[in-house]
């Protein structure tokens, strides 16, 4: 009933194999297009064994490079930054332009007389190039310079995504400091993914927190290595959605298309697209039993007054009085199962599953034919990638 051994969720060996053979060989989510809006803006991301940064050049082109100086391998740039004129290594001040060309070495003739008699950028010490591309308003990087076309990788799942246009939306910040949601979860990244694509648990674990969606009418399946999912709104919520929605509704979403689109792009990026929001769900492996989840949310580009009016209408809607939004259990709201927060419920379930893996009695007793088919399929894709590249090496 399980395609992967327990070691795949607990051992450093498996973690290392995945970093080398999956995360270093697939397109990795880096951020949103607006993160690098102007020349000199940059962001960096860990892509398996590689730290890679994206920078917008003076010609407004996006380029991706491995984030290491060609002198001694020191990291060049930190996580994010704006308006860089050049890229200078903090260790010995070797400097590169925004196109990745080496342009300056302090004391070149004195310290490196035999380095190169040509111009510096012809000495073969320019930054190692990576690939960057855009998919649905998201920036992706690939460690290889000549990576497979991004549409060849994501193209099969695109027809199943929601009608949202992320580039026309604005990022919604819950915190005044502008930070977005981050959560370190004590579970293997694959458990996070399996929970995300598990349709079976929605009507059970989230019976009172995601009851605005009609789980019985969910449509889901596999497209290439990616998972797609859609479920409509329950009739009661749909009938009053213009009032009940907590955020302004997507203006280009037909009523018969309203619902939750929740695809998973292999290996570790989910998109949750609803009637009023669009989110990225990035599961970043930290260790065999630790995963960092980063969620970024976008909503309609309307005035603050429109948000206030919509929230006020939602608070007074009879829909929420009828279907409610409460936790799985009653009790202190600090208990994740009594919190009324579906994310807290999921985190709790994932961490409990991770703990169970250490028991000699652990096994998967049965698997739902439809509701959990995606879990087994995902495991088989992971296994295929690891074994394919490991065997080739």
Automatic annotation (TrEMBL):
SUPFAM superfamilies: Bet v1-like, ISP domain. InterPro entries: Rieske_2Fe-2S, Rieske_2Fe-2S_sf, Ring_hydroxy_dOase_asu_C_dom, Rng_hydr_dOase-A. Coiled coil: none annotated. Gene3D superfamilies: Naphthalene 1,2-dioxygenase Alpha Subunit, Chain A, domain 1, Rieske [2Fe-2S] iron-sulphur domain. Keywords: 2Fe-2S, Iron, Iron-sulfur, Metal-binding, Oxidoreductase. It comes from the Bacteria. Residues 27-106 form the Rieske domain. Signal peptide: none annotated. GO terms for molecular function: 2 iron, 2 sulfur cluster binding; iron ion binding; oxidoreductase activity. Its cofactor is Fe cation. This is Rieske 2Fe-2S family protein. It comes from Maribacter ulvicola.
